[in-house]
Amino acid sequence: MGKLVFQEQEMEVKDTFMYMGTEIRERKTPITPKENFEAMLHNRPHWQPSIYDYMYLFPKCVPDNPAKGNVSDEKLPPSMLGGRDMFGIDWEYVEDIGGSTVRPGQPLLSDANEWYDKVVFPTKEVIDSWDWEECRRNAEKNMREPYLWEPVICTGWFERLISFMDFGEAAMAMIDEDQQEAIKALFDRLSNLYIVLIDKFMEVFPGKIGAVCLHDDWGHQRGIFFSPDTVREMIVPYMKKVTDYCHSKGLYTECHSCGKVDALLPCYIEAGFDMLECQPLLDFAEVVPKYGNQLKMHVSPEVPEPGATQEEYRAAARKFVDLVCSYGKPVIMEGYYSNPMTPEFLEEVYRYSRVRFEELYH
What we know:
Keywords: Methyltransferase, Transferase. The chain is of the alpha/beta class. It has helices at 33-41, 64-68, 115-118, 124-129, 132-142, 158-165, 167-173, 177-204, 228-234, 236-248, 265-270, 284-291, 310-327, 343-361, and strands at 13-19, 22-27, 54-57, 83-84, 90-94, 99-102, 148-153, 211-215, 252-256, 275-277, 296-299, 332-333. The chain starts with 12 loop residues before the first strand and ends with a helix. The relative contact order is 0.13.
């Protein structure tokens, strides 16, 4: 696709809807948000893609989602969040933080070698028995077609090990020679399970799934949990088994990973991920120019405090677009860590990036 010169009629609003607490105004764009997102993944966006171009799928029917407090297809009260995940692990929802933790003190495993006898994997028959019909009906009400549909598997490999062992024991097991082979076998089995889940999403929503997101936190506020060598040996091969499968089916892949993980960015690339949903802890001015051709990172704009003037919002939008352009590589605009994005802010991001991106990328 060649140059698409900005036309003022693009600013006309076709529809308005609320998504993740933000008012989204659909405009008469020359291509769909999904098509622009895919162009971004090939380093040729026509305007700034954002978190609002996704349609996340955290369906209630997958036990991990209500257990961890992440449900996209139904508004559940806190009393219905938490509980047992697909492995029977009991999670406690903490309303103040909007998420869940495994109930402490009684880990399923004291040693990773025990998983062969103690971990009960859900079979395909069990997965098929979940209420996917309700999931489909809810999606028809809540999901929108011109956007990238992305199911989320919200507990990956190291995170799943934590849920079985608690954090300290899981971290130690990753570097314990007596436990490493058992962990590799567990992670390989998890990869097979996640492929079955991905197949199920494609079966329930034929032709609609565009990407898959897998969660696996590798860092904390100041650094990483383990060395790149440990990640390459213990996790990357099993992630790549899943990302290779997704790519073979025409799906893009994303990893949600918290922490200051700059040192591990090559590992996400080696694991086959196209996108990284990261926190605003990374040195984006350094890592986006270095890795942005291969890995599209989430970058949060500085949005003025509520109550600012329209011009202050518009100026902040232009500042963000200029910052992104200075990186020379596309990014995804994140919304979770910023002040609320107003319609004026989002409008100016679109208008200004439409002009600047045609100059930069086309």
